[in-house]
Design a protein that fits this description.
Blueprint lengths: L1 E4 L20 E6 L3 E6 L4 E6 L2 E3 L2 E3 L2 E2 L2 E2 L2 H12 L10 E6 L4 H11 L7 E6 H8 L8 E6 L4 E7 L2 E8 L19 H18 L4 H8 L1 E4 L6 H11 L3 E3 L6 H14 L15
Parallel strand pairs: 2-9, 9-10, 11-14, 14-15
Antiparallel strand pairs: 1-4, 2-3, 3-4, 5-6, 7-8, 11-12, 12-13
Helix pairs in contact: 1-2, 3-7, 4-6
Length: 281
């Protein structure tokens, strides 16, 4: 397991400040196909572990290509990672990132899996929105967010902070090291770039407003492990004829954005209205 220093500044707290307020404990969680990242209230480190659990003597990968395929395995992984880090009698507020096109099915399976953490409230947020929050992006204007993960790549258009269009492909940085056959070369990073460009082009072609074009002129935010590949950001900028800005620490941007929203939700009256309700965000 690796830990990453969290750049989040101390924020305002409700009741007593974290971590002493057991009633107000919180978790920001990003469930990725390759890595799971979490931030818990009162900590300055981001937990970063492989998305894997063990059952029957073998390794189990419970999340694949942005879909939860083993809910009980996901729950076991979360219990191992976070169960001992939570207050014994506390019930945390939990903010969970979700693939932009994950839909109701993903949120339902995720909601079952996180029950092992005894949350009093679960809020879900699209990954693209969390990335924008991590860098304090101006959401009054249309914003294009490209998130290139290990097994999933998403392109999302935000307007007034909401996702108004999105595309994804079951392709990521891990595929750049794979060969279709022993004699075939792995796909070059240019192939991943071409997929992103094709998704943005489709969004432009179907947008009857000027929001996608305005967001493209403003420049795209690039997150995920793909943002660490200079040839990807350079290739996107050249093909899109637009600025492409990799976010700081792009592989942890989603969980950092969720943590910022967790701080804001911590002081909101609706999160304390019920200890058992789950509210989508």
């Amino acid at each position: 397991m690796t830990t990453t220093p969290s750049p989040l500044p101390p924020g305002p707290a409700r009741h007593r400040s974290w971590p002493w307020c057991r009633q107000c404990s919180g978790i920001a969680l990003d469930l990725g196909s390759a890595r799971t990242r979490a931030w818990t209230s009162g900590r300055r480190m981001i937990l970063d572990v492989p998305t894997v659990t063990f059952h029957g003597g073998g390794a189990v990968y419970p999340i694949r290509r942005g879909a939860i395929v083993d809910t009980s395995g996901t729950a076991r992984m979360l219990d191992r990672l976070l169960g001992h880090r939570l207050p014994r009698f506390g019930r945390p507020l939990l903010i969970l990132t979700s693939p932009v096109l994950g839909g109701v099915a993903y949120r339902a399976e995720a909601r079952i899996a996180v029950e092992v953490l005894r949350p009093r409230t679960v809020l879900t947020i699209p990954t693209a929105r969390a990335v924008a929050s991590a860098v304090d992006a101006d959401l009054a204007r249309p914003l294009l967010v490209v998130d290139i993960g290990a097994h999933l790549t998403e392109v999302a258009l935000l307007a007034d902070g909401a996702v108004v269009d999105a595309r994804h492909t079951a392709l990521g940085t891990s595929d750049l090291d794979r060969r279709a056959s022993p004699t075939a070369p792995p796909p070059p990073s240019a192939y991943l770039t071409d997929c992103v460009v094709a998704m943005v082009t489709a969004m432009l072609g179907q947008d009857r407003s000027s929001r996608t074009l305005e967001a493209l002129r403003r420049g795209a935010l690039l997150a995920g492990g793909g943002a660490l590949l200079p040839e990807v950001s350079r290739g996107l900028a050249e093909q899109l004829h637009a600025p492409v800005q990799p976010v700081p620490a792009p592989h942890t941007a989603a969980v950092r954005g969720a943590a910022k929203l967790l701080r804001a939700a911590h002081g909101h009256p609706s999160t304390a209205a019920s200890t058992d309700a789950a509210h989508p965000l």
